[in-house]
Amino acid sequence: MSNKAQYISLVERLNQLSSAYYTQDMPLVADQEYDQLYQELVEIEQQQPQWIAPDSPSQRVGDKPLDGFQPVSHLKPMLSLNNAFSDEELADFYRRCSSLAAKDELELCCEYKLDGVALSLVYEHGLLVQGATRGDGTTGENITSNVRTIRNIPLKLLTNNPPARLEVRGEVIMPHTGFKAFNERAVRNNTKPFVNPRNAAAGSLRQLDPAITSERPLAFYAYSIGDISVGTDFTTHYEQLEFLSSLGLTVNSTTRICTSLQAAVDYYEQTDRERTLLAYDIDGIVYKVNDLALQQKIGFVARAPRWAVARKFPAQEAFTTLIDVEFQVGRTGAITPVARLEPVFVGGVTVSNATLHNMDEISRLGLHLGDRVVIRRAGDVIPQIAAALAPEGKKRGAIPALPTTCPVCDSLVERDDNFAVARCSGGVVCSAQRKASLIHFASRKAFDIDGFGDKLIDQLVNLNALKGFPDVFSLSFDQLIALDRFGEKSASKLLLAIEASKSVSLARFIYALGIREVGEATALELARYFGDIHRLVAANRETLESIDDVGPIVAGHILTYFSDEKHRIAIDQLLAAGVEPQVESASGVDAEALKGLTIVLTGSFTAMNRNEAKQRLQSYGAKVAGSVSAKTSRVYAGPGAGSKLAKAEQLGVEVFSEDDLIELLATLDSEVTE
Length: 674
Description:
Layout: H1 4-22, H2 31-47, E1 71-73, E2 83-84, H3 87-101, E3 108-114, E4 117-124, E5 127-133, E6 139-141, H4 144-147, E7 165-173, H5 176-188, H6 197-205, H7 210-214, E8 219-228, H8 237-246, E9 256-258, H9 261-274, E10 282-289, H10 292-298, E11 300-301, E12 304-305, E13 308-312, E14 317-329, E15 334-346, E16 349-355, H11 359-365, E17 372-378, E18 382-389, E19 413-415, E20 422-424, H12 431-442, H13 454-462, H14 477-481, H15 488-500, H16 506-512, H17 520-530, H18 533-537, H19 541-545, H20 552-563, H21 565-576, E21 598-602, H22 610-619, E22 623-625, E23 634-637, H23 643-651, E24 654-657, H24 658-673
Parallel strand pairs: 2-13, 21-22, 21-23, 23-24
Antiparallel strand pairs: 1-6, 3-9, 3-10, 4-5, 4-7, 7-8, 10-13, 11-12, 14-15, 14-17, 15-16, 15-20, 17-18, 19-20
Protein name: DNA ligase
Family: Belongs to the NAD-dependent DNA ligase family. LigA subfamily.
Catalytic activity: NAD(+) + (deoxyribonucleotide)n-3'-hydroxyl + 5'-phospho-(deoxyribonucleotide)m = (deoxyribonucleotide)n+m + AMP + beta-nicotinamide D-nucleotide
């Protein structure tokens, strides 16, 4: 082959054959013929590297491993779906959508809920330029190099007139045949096999070496358009799927249109009966209102669309034996019973323990040691003991009893008859409480000490190098480098992070102390009211109960905490170590400007996210609540506002727009600077 035009033609031919094989499951040539054409392509590119096209099949594997994944901001949030676990909940979804759409009958697009990993693909002028994980819905990880190795993802869209920009969303899975072959190979090579196809898909996508990902049998199924740069004449979601299919993207052929609720239920039941025969794992059916105009009318709630729901299949269950019940100690001394089980494979994972929450749960189940128990993975996630049965032909064992002393430190266990939770009385004497408290102290919402993680704290507590919060600020370089797997660079970086954390807001300082039932919001109210940690320490019950968010129970916890001399000494030592808690306020902000107002935010905001809006309002003294009640002063609602907006209208609470909120904050800011 002597010219570039012939080379481009060969690239197009190979991409056509690849699409027919991987996307349409319709091979056009024998594997040997494809391999010969591919080898010809590689030889040309070796001779003429300047010709290499970005959509060449040879470009599916990256040149070298990455150092890490970079964050990616999604063009539009990748929302999660609300779940329905019964026919009744599905019927409720249908009725809500019908009511909001003002239509008696709705057309639903019904799709398999593939059990894989959500993925965003971005094409520019028809070429794949980015692949990203869902992440937290707003920001994901750039895994483009790995995405390019997935054979049924086109590097170039099959169209002569592609949109300037197109974001496609879908699911990456590992089919059963590929999963089985991969695990068999792993066993032969004495490497660890994957537990289930979903974990295999997730682990494969997050390989730093794209060459490793290229060896994994992954497949991608598109299920929606996230964003498109040009106007379209689509009227239904199904038309969007057909459009994606025409571009060479794989769309699940099992998708159906149901024109009634009964048809939607029938589709679910049929799929549930047949899903063990499928070539891949699914964990439910996704129902979407098909009409795009009705989707916009029905809108969104929080981080999920109102017009879609995932009808989950029943939680998977299995029988096993209860071997023992052990007790774990948490940050506030709460003692939680944990069931130790004969390992059992259920819902795609091996389960060997399950939380029992508290002693009341043991009584409710009528649990005895040695019982045959039913393990259920509720929503296919959290292992639970659903029922307990006497072992066949055997006498039941003892009923698990609450220990009288802490299993970690031997301090007395206390239990108030009015509460289900039992607690260790040891406080920081208990290493389990100390570890959990220090993890909380260093966490992102508290002192935010980067690099001060669970394993490090565990080591330092075991060495008795951390007896309390003040010891964090007296750690030395020599202490740190003496730790297992902790080098000079890590030690220096951690010490800098510890030093930087000394400049902390008073609200974070209070929250970091770990006072029972004092969360972020209450800590902020306390910081705003007292403005100084010593004033808070000296506060009496009457003063505390006069503060928003502080009732008799929380006031009691605060008084108990500060009445303990060990806690007062620790605070003094933190201050002596250079910690300088300061009241949060933006330069000169009038922290009383909105005092007395209880505000609720709902819907999607565009100029700022809801968390930022919340912080801005709180800095001016407002209380920002999570739900609407008769005490709510006003509601600020963005697009997609749902039940909170309806509740506000029902109660006659004033409702304002995001523009009103921006105007309010701008006015307050201008008053500060005048």
